[in-house]
Amino acid sequence: MRQVWWTLGWLFTDIGCQEQARTLSLVSEITRFYRQPSPTSDLGHHADLWHHADLSPGLPADPEALGAIVRGLLIHNFTAKVQGLTFPVGRMAHMQTVGAEAILDNVFSLDPAPLGVERPAGRRMVGFCYHFALLHCALLRATGTPARIRCGFAGYFEPRRWIDHWVTEYWDGDGWLLTDPQTGRRNLTRDDFQDGLSAWDQCRDGASAPDAYGNGELWGWDELRGSLINDVAALNKVEVSGWYWCDRLKVEPLDQPHDELDTSLDILSRLAATAESVQMIKECFDRYPEFQPPADAVAR
Fold it and tell me: What are 231-269's pLDDT values in tens digits?
């Protein structure tokens, strides 16, 4: 009997070691995936900034310090309005910019100062939360930190409302941390931010009211659907804001449940939430081509 228990103990220990090794392998694979740039987070011809002291003297690798640099380069369109700043049409068109390389093109066209120099508000690129998150993510990846952007809803802008928002999620060696490079909030919790997958599940399960999710005049199911497909795309490193291009989401009425569409989105959300490997993440995304943004999509 003692021999049997010893054998079983060895077997369970061996199984536990195998499972631990598998987990570590998956973590290594996923963090390696999110450390590499995507087409939208690639710095392009700006990638050599890290090798030019005149353009990036002493740029930090610390995620929060990089977030502060981003806030010195960009200004949110609402912040500009509150501050009474007005910009010509060409400057406002920067809000449709997609891609970190194009963002930095805009930044340097307005002010050629080194990247770490905070610009006056009037010489920052006008954008919105997506641009803050994407540029932050791109800088994190460029400095070796696994990162991804998440589309979802923030609970800290208006009481009892969830406002659509983009934030950054980065790997600190032990797990994923959420941070908001637009506002400077860090270590966000589920009480602060719900990603697109979580918000969708909360509302589909009846735990939250759909009409509490949105922005401006747009609230409810359309916002939840759009944020979900944006979030799944971003998990696949296809980082584009907006869903005006998605004909599948154009159901009437937009703010009401739609059985056929919402059932497909339930499957998409479940597959994305349970994906354990890069391959599973990609398979989830590839399952519904109609939810993938076209190559010429702009940010909205």
Answer: 999 999 999 999 999 999 999 999 999 999 999 999 999
Structure-token match 């931010």, residue found: 193
Q: What is the mean pLDDT of residues 44-57?
A: 67
CA gap 90, 101 in Å, rounded: 18
| 264-300 pLDDT tens trace | 999 999 999 999 999 999 999 999 999 999 988 988 8
How far lies 252's CA from each of 200, 246, 257, in Å?
19, 14, 9
Q: Are 195 and 152 in contact (CB under 8 A)?
A: yes
Q: How far is CA 184 from CA 70, 71, 277, in A?
A: 10, 8, 30
Q: Where are the beta strands (DSSP E) in the chain?
A: 74-76, 125-127, 147-158, 161-171, 176-179, 193-195, 213-215, 218-219
The DSSP bridge partners found for residue 214 are: 163, 219
Q: Within its chain, how far is the Cα of 115 from the centroid?
A: 22
Residues 6+ apart with CB under 8 A from 67: 136, 168, 179, 181, 184, 186
> Which residue has 């032990």 as its token pair?
174
pTM of the model: 0.91
Q: What is the model's pLDDT at position 2?
A: 44
- In angstroms, the CA 1 to CA 137 distance is 57
